[in-house]
Amino acid sequence: MKKRIISAIIMLLVFIPILLLGDKYYAIFGSIIGLMGLHELLKQEKNIPSYMKYISFFVTLYLILYNYKYYFFENLYPMSAIIIIFFIYTFSIIINKDSKKYNFKEVITILFDVFLIGILFNSFIRVRLLGEKTVIYCLLISGLTDTFAYIGGSLFGKHKLCPNISPNKTIEGSISGSIIGTIGTTLYYALVIRNTNILEIIILSFMLTIISQMGDLFFSSIKRYYKIKDYSNLIPGHGGVLDRLDSSLFVILGFVLYLVIR
After folding, report:
1. What average pLDDT does the structure give for the chain?
2. Residues 16, 60 share a domain
3. Rounded to the nearest 10 degrees, what angle do helices 2-21 and 132-156 cross at?
4. Do both 98 and 154 map to the same domain?
5. Quick one: which of 40, 99, 155, 223 is 20 to 30 A from 245 by CA?
6. Domain boundary among 130, 151, 172
7. Which domain holds residue 168?
8. Which of 130, 150, 171 corresponds to the end of one domain?
9. Residues 55-61: contacts with CB within 8 Å, 24+ apart?
């Protein structure tokens, strides 16, 4: 626990100045940790050729930084870019000499990883354009939900939520996390960001607490598939980039969806 707390303090001391410096520095930061997250996923795949991993880093960086200076999220990537990416990965199957190790299954996996990280971290850095208060709101959603889901589960937990993915999570903990997460972030939004439509913010905050838990479970399911405890040991007591940001990335993506359809 001591190691976990010290790591959390260090992360805050690094993150807060970057958040306050502005969107350019935040974009650089988001790109770096995004590529680190991709590395955590790709290292689980032993049969992917090294050259395809390097190509995937460049493709992911393009996806992360594409149009990040614009508020609008519609038509996120041009069709021409998607087609070129498709051709690159298709061609890699054709020229590969060992189809038993590297075939369409590996290509589907690596393509999913590339677009997953690209889209999640593109949203991560683009939300900063709405201001640091909005970024804090999204991070508060995941932070409060996760913390009080753990506390609620420890105190009242009796019924398992998803035992095949995360045996320790409970329905009671999930409900506790959503309730406190919704109340806390609605108050923050109303007092700090000052949106007058309280009902809309309550509904938004509640939905994002659900999405936060979905993100946690989704990335946990990947770890269970690969039979690993953490994505890496980069952050003592926390694991890797994806261990730390799993639910936050989904919350931000959910918030982006809200901006698009509102």
Report:
1. 89
2. yes
3. 160
4. no
5. 155
6. 130
7. 132-262
8. 130
9. 55/88, 55/92, 56/110, 56/113, 56/114, 59/85, 59/88, 59/114, 59/118, 60/34, 60/35, 60/114, 60/117, 60/118, 61/31, 61/34, 61/35
pLDDT tens column, 67-118? 877 655 556 677 788 888 888 888 888 887 767 777 888 889 999 999 999 9
Rg of the chain over Cα atoms, rounded to whole angstroms, equals 19
C-alpha–C-alpha distance, residues 161 and 151, integer Å: 15
Contact criterion met (CB below 8 Å) for 176 and 159: no
Residues 75 and 194 in one domain: no
Residue 22, by phi and psi: left (phi above 0), alpha (psi -120 to 50) or beta? left
**Matching residue, tokens 């090294």:** 50
Q: Give the end-to-end CA distance of the chain in Å, rounded to a whole number.
A: 41
The number of distinct structural domains making up the chain is 2
Judgement on whether residues 154 and 61 belong to the same structural domain of the protein:
no
Take residue 25 and report the two structure tokens written for it: 């520095």
Closest among 40, 47, 56, 54 to 106, alpha carbons compared: 47
Q: Which has the closest alpha carbon to 18: 10, 26, 27, 30?
A: 26
Residues 120 and 157 in one domain: no
User: Structure tokens of 49?
Assistant: 């050729």
Are 10 and 110 in the same domain?
yes
What six digits make up the tokens of 166? 């995360």
**Residue that has been written with the tokens 């770890």 in this structure:** 223
Same domain as 45, residue 17: yes
